[in-house]
Amino acid sequence: MSAISVQNIKRSYGGAEALKGVSFQVEKGEIFGIIGPDGAGKTTLFRILTTLLLADSGVAIVDGSDLVEDYKAIRKKVGYMPGRFSLYQDLSVEENLQVFASVFNTTIEENYHLIKDIYQQIEPFKTRRAGALSGGMKQKLALSCALIHKPVVLFLDEPTTGVDPVSRKELWAMLKKLKNEGITILVSTPYMDEASLCDRIALIQDGAFLKIDTPENIVKAYDENLWAIKSTAMSELLKDLRTHPEVKTSFAFGDTIHITVGNTDPDKLKVFLEEKGHKNIGIRQIKAGIEDCFMQLSQAS
Amino acid sequence: MIILLVLPVLMILMFGFAISTEIKNARFAVYDPSHDLATQKIIDKINSSEYFTLDTYIIDPSQIETVFQKGEIGLVVEFSENFYKNIVQTGEAQILLIADGTDPNTASTLVNYVSRLIAAYQLEQMVLTGKLPYQIDVKVKLLYNPTLKGAYTTVPGVMGLILMLICAMMTSVSIAREKELGTMEVILVSPMPPLLIILSKVIPYFTISIINYLTILALGVYVLDVPVEGSFILLSLLSLLFIFVSLALGLLISSLVRTQMAALLGSVMGLMLPAVLLSGLMFPIENMPLFLQVIAQFIPAKWFIAAVKEVMIMGLGVGSILREMAVLGIMAIVLITLSLRKFKTRLE
Amino acid sequence: MFHAIKPGIMNVIEARDLTKRFGHFTAVDAITFNVKKGEIFGFLGANGAGKTTAMRMLCGLSKPTSGAGQVAGFDINKNPERIKENIGYMSQKFALYEDLKVWENLRLFGGIYGIPEKEIGNRIDELLTTLGFKSEKNMMVKSLPLGWKQKLAFSAAIFHEPKIVFLDEPTGGVDPAARRQFWELIYDASDRGITVFVTTHYMDEAEYCNRVSIMVDGRIDALDSPANLKEKYHVQTMDEVFFQLARKAKAKV
Asked: What is the mean pLDDT of chain B?
């Protein structure tokens, strides 16, 4: 039996369709990522699956309990970290943890081993008010509170948004460790590079899933010719590439520009660019990353 | 938007027309052992003024207190025996005005009006008969509050307001804050039954309001010299009932709003303002137009303050406040049921 | 990667030992740097490192505790009001009035920054045509998709052709395609001579800048072009540069 099973969940707010009928399954112990930008419907999906919102239609089962009929059972066994910091700001780190432990009828000691790695980083500040913590520390505390009762499924809504890169890495390392405890994790993020850290991902845009698969398969399924190009004048490079008849799409990607082409000869392209005045031109074929795939899929839809 | 434009209009109409500290059609009773022409004339004069309406003729002087306790009479006019005879023979007679001191403002107003009417009668007689003016000696006796202390009416009033403030407003703001900051979201996704969540929010303010009740009472008794004539236990039970009503109101408001600001506004506009204006605390309800009087019946503070005055200042027992307690009891049950049902276990 | 700057140009931002203290806490610790006209300057750092506080001082919104600087030719300490007249500002949290229409927002900002009444109408049409939403002129901003809002907000921020525009995390949460389109707008602005001072969390966006500075605990720990920084730390991406710096900072604590 899957840990999470979702069938055709739809949800609208007023006239706007936030979720247009999403379906997917998550197996026990998987890290499943929901990847997509703001407004795609991630938070709505999470709130529905944690029983905080009712879907307009569709069914979902979390750890064998129905979302609507058995919502009380679900609330007892899941951990939830909402998109914005939602702990008691005026209580200390330790007090917050104690509140959640007792609300879930357990103690801090009982499952300490689960949160040890993360909590040890904020333990020196355990008497500090939660509101006075930095962004990264707040998320670590929130994660600890969500884990303190050893949930069966962990729902993390954008746990790394706005967090510094170092804390982000640490959080993901934690999540990987939790897999070994058999905890299923559903996590959402707008950062494409975090997609490769998940077992499987669903790319979401405008309330619909573009694709569901492992990151490797999604990349393998990318069927365009992808090149990375650089020169000494990147802004002009972008404009010039767009005028080239054989270049299908061109987008800036950090220090190179990724273009998709048909069967073009790279040397011909180099000449074309040299004629435009570019120097130090670098052209190489590359494998697609998740972001390339996302952009291709979202442009197509 | 509508509130901002319509509310001032409502307020000016209310203050201008409906709510006034003037007395109109105040009910009075008469104890007239003389039953003669002069007393009849005076009684008629008082009755025919727009300020007073004759309610009862008291037969037995022991009934005087009872008449006040029933709560509808504001003034008793007691004539001395052989009134007319005395005026004619000695040129002097006495009238005793007995007023209900639990509302000192009203009492002084009533006394003043009647005194003036009696003086006017004297003047008329002088003009008519050309004789030397009679001496009608008007004495005033104030029941329950002989020195007309304002505190007698303010202490019950303040108690009602504070309890409502702490229980209704603070509870609603506290729950709304959790909704606004997002902590409610996380607590809902937990084994905690909603009833427990509610209790956890309500109990602190319950405790604080009990302390407030005792503090106000103590200050009232020892610093302001307001007596507790009746049973302290009865008073406390009454206050407890009112606290429950207020807590339920706070809960109800919290389930209707999404932000602390809205909870605050709702509590102030929807509870405090009507309580101050229509509970009888500042303006006598009897003088308001009918529709406002009807609305006043739905204000819990009205029933509470009235009952508190009866127990604290008049020293009455359970029997007299049965009606108030029943009303508050029904309000409590209805409001608690309603607010529990409306408490949202989901986010929408 | 960089975008070519015309040579021989002066500094539009100069900061010397700029410091801001709140009680005992030093949010910005004597930072010193310059930004040249037409540059795209990336201002990076973790949350709480002091970026927002520093930006506020540069925008004339907050008085430095000590130190000096000039922005667009005006002294930070003596003439903050003049600074405000000559800069544009866009933040992620607020940019446009959601309950006004597209053109109404532009007219509002135009009016605030003193664009003459007669010109505003034409400038609005020009701008909307360039952005490609002429037909959405009368739409309520709240019904625009996020990516469009960002573009519109940016255009409103530079509507009055300021010397510098300050962007505070302008692309947070926006989808990848819209983010890139946004950066293309930034390039256009830079081409027109507007200096762009931008803070961001996306390390790949750091690559689009001519130079970046990285703030750690109130101090600037790195200031150079992305290419030079990557060489210095022997890494391939700006993400890794940041990681190295942040690890060093943690080790010190």
From this structure: 85
- Give the pLDDT score at A301: 66
C–A touching, 3+ CB–CB pairs within 8 Å: yes
For chain B, what is the HEC assignment? CHHHHHHHHHHHHHHHHHCCCCCCCEEEEEECCCCCHHHHHHHHHHHHCCCEEEEEECCCCCHHHHHHHCCCCCEEEEECCCHHHHHHHHCEEEEEEEEECCCHHHHHHHHHHHHHHHHHHHHHHHHHHCCCCCEEEEEEEEECCCCCCCHHHHHHHHHHHHHHHHHHHHHHHHHHHHHHHCHHHHHHCCCCCHHHHHHHHHHHHHHHHHHHHHHHHHHHHHCCCCCCCCCHHHHHHHHHHHHHHHHHHHHHHHHHCCCHHHHHHHHHHHHHHHHHHHCCCCCCHHHCCHHHHHHHCCCHHHHHHHHHHHHHCCCCCHHHHHHHHHHHHHHHHHHHHHHHHHCCCCCC
Which residues have CB under 8 Å from C159's CB, separation 6+? C88, C106, C109, C110, C113, C115, C123, C127
How many CA atoms, within 13 angstroms, populate the side-chain half-sphere of residue B271?
A: 29
- Give pLDDT tens digits for C25-36: 888 999 999 999
Length reported for chain C: 253
Contact between A166 and C247 (Cβ < 8 Å): yes
Q: What is the mean pLDDT of residues B104-112?
A: 84
Give the mean model confidence (pLDDT) for residues A67-79. Answer: 93
Q: Please tell me the total count of domains within chain C.
A: 1
pLDDT tens digits for A3-18?
Answer: 999 999 999 988 788 9
Complex ipTM: 0.81
**Structural domains for chain A:** 4-214 (3.40.50.300), 222-300 (3.30.70.100)
pLDDT digits (tens, 9 = 90+) for A196-249: 899 999 999 889 999 999 999 999 999 889 999 988 877 788 888 988 888 888
pLDDT digits (tens, 9 = 90+) for B25-76: 788 889 888 888 888 888 998 888 888 888 888 888 888 888 887 777 888 8
Nearest to B255 by CA among B197, B209, B298, B207: B197
In a domain, C48, yes or no: yes
What is the token pair recorded at B154? 């303010």
Q: What sign has the CA pseudo-torsion B188, B190, B195, B201?
A: negative
Distance CA A242, CA A273 (A): 11
Answer yes or no: is C138 within a domain.
Answer: no
pLDDT at C1 > cutoff 70: no
Q: Which candidate in B189, B192, B200 is best for mutational testing of the A interface (most A CBs within 10 A)?
A: B189
Across residues B153-170, what is the average pLDDT?
A: 88
Residues of A at the B interface, defined by Cβ within 8 angstroms: 47, 50-54, 72, 75-76, 78, 80, 82, 84-89, 100, 103-105, 145
Question: What is the helix (H) or strand (E) element at residue A146, kind and residue range?
Answer: helix A135-147
Whole-angstrom distance, CA of residue C182 vs CA of residue A146: 36
For the cut 70, the answer to whether the pLDDT of residue A179 exceeds it is: yes
Interface mutation vs chain A, best among B184, B190, B345, most A CBs within 10 Å: B190
- Judge whether C240 lies within some domain: yes
Instruction: Say what the pTM is.
Output: 0.81
What CATH number is given for B22-143 in this structure? 3.40.1710.10
| A41 interfacial to chain C (CB closer than 8 Å) | no
Two tokens, residue B70: 């029933």
Inter-chain CB pairs, A–C, below 8 Å: 93
Residue spans of the domains in chain B: they are: 22-143, 151-342
Place of tokens 């104890």: B31
> C-alpha angle with apex A188: A183 to A192, nearest 5 degrees?
120
